[in-house]
Design goal:
The protein is an alpha/beta fold. Helix content is about 25%, strand content about 20%. It is globular, with a radius of gyration of 16 Å.
């Protein structure tokens, strides 16, 4: 019997080059795309209900202080109470759980600090996020999550090659252009499984639609 899944990476379809990010994940994890036509928080809640053993989630999405773009909705300071019931169901053992947030400036300023504090209170999980730009170094970004609440184990989300070659920045200023780019994909919905770090040989993947779903071997 294979090992159970303990980590999930959720990639919002609106980010620049979501497939490149998916294939560059350096963790042993299940990697899922958030559909741009559905509520992202609801998608995450549904997935976590299917995998109650999940101990950590990684959210890759466009961000701003105290806000994340997830699917066709935003998770932000102003609507955390609206999602209260869902957030409280995310983890079976919240004290051992961690949420890693990869979005620009999510932890910045008073709004960022309050957002993370309330998210931790509602989920019970440890939190790691960034108060800076997240993404390509040549655009001022990096992948460090040094705004931390609770006890957080360091994780290297992407391979060194993925970090060096990813072209995007995960800020809301880039959201419209990234969404337009994503919506030019012409392929049908495709699911595929491969070992982390191996190339994908399915020819349809090059035209993958935003609704792609990838599962990597779970740790």
């Amino acid at each position: 019997m294979g090992k159970r899944t303990h980590s999930v990476v959720f990639i919002d379809a609106g980010v620049d080059a979501p497939l490149q990010l998916a294939t560059g994940i350096g963790l042993k994890a299940k990697v899922l795309n958030l559909s741009p036509t559905e509520d992202g928080v609801e998608q995450i809640t549904s997935t976590l209900a299917t995998y109650p053993e999940i101990a950590e989630i990684h959210l890759i999405a466009h961000g701003s202080p105290g806000c994340l773009q997830l699917g066709n909705s935003q998770l932000e300071l102003q609507n955390l109470t609206y999602y209260r019931a869902q957030l409280q169901r995310w983890f079976a053992s919240p004290q051992q759980a961690t949420i890693y947030i990869y979005g620009c400036n999510v932890a910045a300023g008073d709004a960022g600090s309050e957002f993370l504090g309330q998210l931790r209170s509602l989920t019970g999980a440890n939190i790691a996020a960034s108060p800076r730009l997240v993404g390509a170094a040549n655009r001022g970004g990096d992948w460090r999550l040094d705004a931390v609440l609770g006890t957080v184990m360091p994780r290297r989300l992407l391979t060194e090659t993925a970090i060096a070659t990813y072209p995007g920045i995960l800020g809301t200023d880039d959201f419209a252009s990234a969404t337009n780019l994503t919506n030019t994909d012409t392929g049908s919905n495709v699911g595929f499984t491969h070992e982390s770090g191996e190339p994908i040989h399915d020819p349809s993947v090059s035209n993958l639609s935003p609704a792609f779903q990838q599962s990597l071997n779970a740790s």
